[in-house]
What does this fold into?
Amino acid sequence: MIMVPPMLEREIQDYLFQHPNTLFPGQVIQEKQREYSIQGKRIDLLFRVDDVRYIVELKRNTIERDHIGQIVEYYGLMREVLHSEQIRMILVAPKIPSFRKVYLEELGIRCVELTMPLEAPNASKQLMAESVSYRKSFDARQSLEHLFPEGSSITFSELSQPATPLALAMTHRVLRDSLESVRRTFQGYETVPIRMIHSSSPDQIAWPAPMRLEKLPTFLRGGAWWAYAFGQSDTMPKNDVPNISVASMPGSLDLTVNSELQTSQRVLINQITKSPAEFDRLLQAHGGLDLQAWLKLEHQPRFYHWIPVCTAAAGTWDARHLLSNHKNLEAQFKELRGQWITWLKTHRPDLTSGQRSHMEKSNRSLNVALRLARPFRSSDPIWKQDYKDQIRTLEKEIAQLKPFIDFFVGNAAGLRN
It folds into this structure.
């Protein structure tokens, strides 16, 4: 990447004011203002494009963690002041780290990174190409959001089945509307939202949970999900440590402290091994977490058959129970792998020859997703609440998982407050 020399906000402002088509290629620019003031609030640039007002906030330096709250608050204030109009925000800066860009764009704040000097020959062309790409992505999101109108409640019936476009729209809305509360609760960490992109998940989940191969489990296509990752994300890629995930399962919507990737599984096991008494104290203080262990057998790159190999209800398990079961799974893995791959090849005629071959060649080491789950079953009061109360309930339940993120992520990364 070309190192961009420091730019004055005035230089950026002048360029975008004179070349608004770089932000809105092919659209009708009905109005443009600079140094605009609305009820005492200063706006660097204001454009009206296709009857939508765009507030452009300019920053001359890299976007840091401390800027996030200020930017989100400013956007909220502008939406309140101009509540009767369609308002969108664009943040322009020389560098916006990808994990902060993901966060801001999840909230609807478009991020434009100036990766080359504005006078460079290709600067305009690059900005326009990125603008076209963003608009396509934004239009796709809008189309999905229309499936779940504002004010509608999330429903157990929709979320307890294999993922559908409507379930995907529900998860996107809940992720967006809970995100700021989660960031404030987990101050001291970078909060990175992770969303499911397509509703046609190739993951397969065994249901009901098979305890013996003779019971011939049914495999269902995976449900919709979303997640919040935590840590110093510039040095710690998402999911390398346990995160908080919300997954639609056949019998419940599970809010989990989730160790899905093998790297995060090692962090979870190592931290519990180091401090089992502290983990048991946290577990007892919460009082409502089930234990789930899912054997993952990859049948194509990054997609799996999920097979429950250990479950325990809240109050019936502790650190020793978890560690003992994991040790047994390590010892039995070779046998488990052989049994399940043979069974799947025999009883899953829908598997392609490529998927069968991939299963045989991969899955050479134990991959067992470990989840501490607070399940929302069909009888849970959340399904009778209106949408705003559902969000508040989820935010409250997520906040109760912070001690576990401190225990796993904070200890592992040296971030604990």
Q: What stands out?
A: The first strand starts at residue 29 and ends at 38. The CA atoms of residues 76 and 144 lie 23 Å apart.
